[in-house]
Amino acid sequence: GQEIVSSELKKPLVPPSFNLSEYFKRFLFPQNECELHDFRLSFSQLKWDNWIVAPHRYNPRYCKGDCPRAVGHRYGSPVHTMVQNIIYEKLDSSVPRPSCVPAKYSPLSVLTIEPDGSIAYKEYEDMIATKCTCR
Amino acid sequence: CQASRGEAQIAASAELEPEAEPWSLLHPLDGRDRSGLLPPLFKILSDEREGIPRLQPDTRALRYMKRLYKAYATKEGIPKSNRSHLYNTVRLFTSCVQHKQVPVDQVPGIFPSLDLLFNLDRVSVLEHLLKSILLYTFKDSISFPSAVKCECDLVIKEPKSSSEAFPRAPNSFTFEFRKKHKWIELDVTTLLQPLVASNERSIHMSVNFTCVNDQLQPPSAQESPFNMSLLVPPSLLLYLNDTSAQAYHYKRRPSQSPDHKAHLSPYPTGQEAAQGRRSLRHRR
Predict the structure, then answer these.
(1) For A117, which of B89, B94, B249 is closest by C-beta distance?
(2) SS (H, E, C) chain B
(3) What is the mean pLDDT of residues B103-110?
(4) What ipTM describes this predicted complex?
(5) CA nearest to B223, candidates B179, B174, B175
(6) Which residues in chain A have Cβ-Cβ distances shorter than 8 Å to B61?
(7) A113 with B122: Cβ contact below 8 A
(8) pLDDT for the residue numbered B97
């Protein structure tokens, strides 16, 4: 077997056309996997800047992308998510695949002018998505 | 006054088209907790028609609130975590000056009494008062030749809803104007706590000042700040804890709380432990 081993060793480890980063993208981090995306808006675009004084820009962020099959380790999804995925793949494709949704949020402070002319500083819960998950 | 006239207009339009005024749906004054309601921020989203006409606030008050915003939140609007307070709402109300009793011979340093009315319709039942400040400022930024001591007598008039009609005993505050003085804050929390807690919709008070310079004489006419025209009628600041579902409730880490009241430590602190030992010995 020595000849085989030595000839094997002489072969290049990876095929010449192979690209490492391509490998990573395709297998470890597949394209458009479920992740957090930015969406920066200013309240003047919504014509609310006559009553929202601050902040000028607001980035609520959102979750988008496909949920991979092995969601447990990446997204902390419950086992139910994998069960739902198996049902979708093997039993009934009318059952939707797991969805990519926000798992954690952070608050937002807003300075507004009230209809009676008074001014209010308020802090609202759950206004900015900070983490995504598959459910 | 401006605010109540504005309210009257808005209320009138609300009568015409009940859905025209979504704000009142958001803070039900009758106390029923409709937690499913959208926060005011997005109620407008669902309302297609043009924004509701709103009264413009006083520019100095707006400048003060912008400064407060910068102190409490980052540029992106995230509440700063190094905070030492529990309130998640601060409301600034501009007073409707009822009238000024201007004395015939106006002496510099003695201000005529001001009758003030604050309309608190925006305060919802779920917002609990933690602190309240009367905020004075001057029309122009001025500097004083020397420190000046002032005494402010404040009388809270009985609310219309209560039976007694007599004004209460005056409460006195003393404070000092230093060189470059921009804002003067009078803590009126203890006076207003019962009124806000009983969900009073307006607060009526009369305020008058007397000031002496550090030689304990009324400041001379040259010390310009003390003629009435430069002092702006005060605004009322309410620091509130909004207990509704959509408000942000800051979870304070034990290591961050400065005052022990809020920091209910599971173990007695040093002096409490010493006290415990003493009472134990005393009992023995």
Answers:
(1) B94
(2) CHHHHHHHHHHHHHHHCHHHCCHHHHCCCCCCCCCCCCCHHHHHHHCCCCCCCCCCCCHHHHHHHHHHHHHHECCCCCECCCCCCCCCEEEEEECEEEEEECCCCCCCCECCEEEEEEECCCCCCCEEEEEEEEEEEECCCCECCCCEEEEEEEEECCCCCCCCCCCCCCEEEEEEECCECCEEEEECHHHHHHHHHCCCCEEEEEEEEEEEECCCCCCCCCCHHHCHHHEEEEEEEEEEEECCCCECCCCCCHHHCCCCCCCCCCCCCHHHHHHHHHHHHHHC
(3) 56
(4) 0.73
(5) B179
(6) 119
(7) no
(8) 66
Q: Is B165 left (phi over 0), alpha (psi -120 to 50) or beta?
A: alpha
**pLDDT tens-digit profile of B148-159?**
777 888 888 866
Question: What does the H/E/C string look like for B142-153?
Answer: CECCCCEEEEEE
Round to whole Å and give the CA distance between B252 and B260.
12
CA distance B248 to chain A (A): 4
A107 at B interface, C-beta within 8 A: yes
d(CA B73, CA A55): 9
| Gap between the Cα atoms of B226 and B112, Å rounded | 12
Distance CA B219, CA B216 (A): 8
